[in-house]
Predict the structure.
Amino acid sequence: MAEESTTPLEPAGDEVLTGHSYDGIQEYDNPTPRWWELMFVATIVFSPIYAIWFHAPLQGRTLADQYQASLADNMRLQFGEIGDLTPDETTIVKFMNDPKWLPVGESTFKTNCVSCHGPEGIGISGPNLTDDNYLNVKKIEDIATVIRDGAKNGAMPAWGNRLHPNEVVLAAAYVASLRGKNLKSARLTEGVEIAPWPSGG
Ligand code: HEC
């Protein structure tokens, strides 16, 4: 069925046929158009420039880096409102009771801490943060110190160079706010029971 009706047509003008014939369809021996070849060469020339510009480990030019930079800018913009927070008792207690800023601490926690402490803070590989027992915390400001410097040789990582100092304080305020929820945890109670947080005001 395929081969029989292949009387080659006379090519128009100076067109050359390849001699291929499939189901009677013949093929001109046309070169790829110049614009196509130029595009092909252009992509080859472009790719190393693109790769070096965006992927060389220089200044952050990738979309992810730009996103991080915008996030940081936005954070600085927002933090302009509260200034530089000191990780002390008064500040942490204040923000523990601040409905506007506590969600910022919560989002820091949800972004960085839930892999070990669980979304509710009940603990996975890290301890339960919703009870009254603590390993490294005796006073409320110790929470900020543990977050900044880490604990147990990095089992609890240090966040001081990964988070804005204000984020450390706000995350500490959020962690402090989890205390007393006493959520059920698969982990055994760890550490010692400590005195209640000082009340705000
Ligand atoms: C890689 C797992 C991991 C991540 C991620 C992690 N932690 Fe921890 N965290 C731990 C472990 C393990 C401990 C217990 C350290 C110890 O035994 O002394 C701990 C302890 C703590 C403590 C002290 C609790 C206590 O009883 O003394 C606080 C507060 C804390 N983490 C907050 C955070 C916050 C806030 C973040 C996110 C910014 C975070 N952690 C992220 C593993 C983690």
Notes: The CA atoms of residues 38 and 44 lie 10 Å apart. Residues 109, 112-113, 115-117, 125-127, 134-137, 143, 146-147, 151-152, 155-157, 159, 171, 175, 191 surround heme C (CB under 6 Å). The first strand starts at residue 17 and ends at 22.
